[in-house]
Specification:
This protein is an alpha+beta fold and 347 residues long. The chain is 24% helix and 31% strand. It contains eight helices and 18 strands. The strands form four sheets. Strands 6-7-8-3-9-10 form a six-stranded mixed β-sheet, sandwiched between helices. A five-stranded antiparallel β-sheet has the order 13-17-14-15-16, with no helix packed on it. Helix 2 packs across helix 3 and helix 3 packs across helix 4. It is elongated, with a radius of gyration of 24 Å. The N and C termini lie far apart (50 Å). The structure holds adenosine-5'-diphosphate. The site of adenosine-5'-diphosphate (ADP) has 11 residues, from strand 2 and helix 1.
Length: 347
Amino acid sequence: MNLTHGESVTFKNVEKYYNKTVAVKDFNLDIKSSEFLTLLGPSGSGKTTVLNMIAGFIQQSSGSILIGKNSIENLPTEKRNVGMVFQSYSLFPHMNIFENVAFPLKMRNEDKKIIKEKVSYALNLVNLDGVESRKPNELSGGQRQRIAFARAIVFKPKVLLMDEPLGALDLKLREKMQIEIKNYHKEINCTIIYVTHDQGEALTLSDRIVIMNKGKIVQIDNPKNIYDNPLSKFAANFIGESNILNIDSLKLDKSNINYENKKFISIRPEKLKLVEKNFSQANDQIILNLKIYQIIFLGDFIKYICNDENNNTIILKKAKIDNENNFNISDNINVYFDISECSLLKE
Ligand code: ADP
């Protein structure tokens, strides 16, 4: 049984207020059909509010939301063809697994035989055929989350909303489930809108990431561009680690690059290279003189936390196999980076 293609979801100038609290503001977004899009941001940035407006649990204060070509303002939740998976699983404890997964189909008055077929397909997709007669409390956390997923997609939704679905699982299981969710998406091919505050999860899963802060979109791009080209301090610090330096504090040849309106540069810790004996500095390279004040062993990497001459904290990350990594706390080291490898930030 092949599940359906996804629908696009469009936000036009959407805002949501709770009395005077702004939950979502100036929200314009085109989510493509069958895209895996992640809303990423700190707690309170408006992610769940966006999902709830798509689901129809809350109504926007202004602006419009479309699924495909149709405005959904006046459609009740059950007519929107949207599936949902929550962190808390929300399985019905008194029903067995078959009844749980069959529930959305029963609500839609599907024929018994079709219900059986569709439940069997959904359980097979999440690799849990055989548990039909068990109750949710007889399953592990990961298994319960798979069942919640099966229940959300069993009626072939065009759009699937997932709100921190892996938040209750431990790290190893979370990473395993991320790969599974990616595989499910390939198979069912619906549009997935995923909410997380975990940047690693967002990078692993998404076609595109929307970084949110205080109800607004900060940046939208694919994982590689978001990581390589953050546009603001917020984005640079929220995804991965960044060293942020004031442009005015650097000795830069400003003739070649347009630095207009740009106040800071951001350079990733792994882009800093050690100055070797015969190093001769090129025009587009910046040297930093650092003093190490902390060394953190990360298994495959070693992280050196340093101060530069202006007392900025600078993080340097080196693969463990480098021989040069045998530094100690209080050592002075010189590192350099290429201007082409850093991002210019306005704010
Ligand atoms: P996130 O999912 O990113 O943690 P939310 O969408 O839950 O953020 O919340 C966004 C903002 O809206 C927060 O400031 C939150 O306090 C506020 N908010 C959310 N729901 C309500 C509500 N029912 N009443 C009042 N304020 C709310």
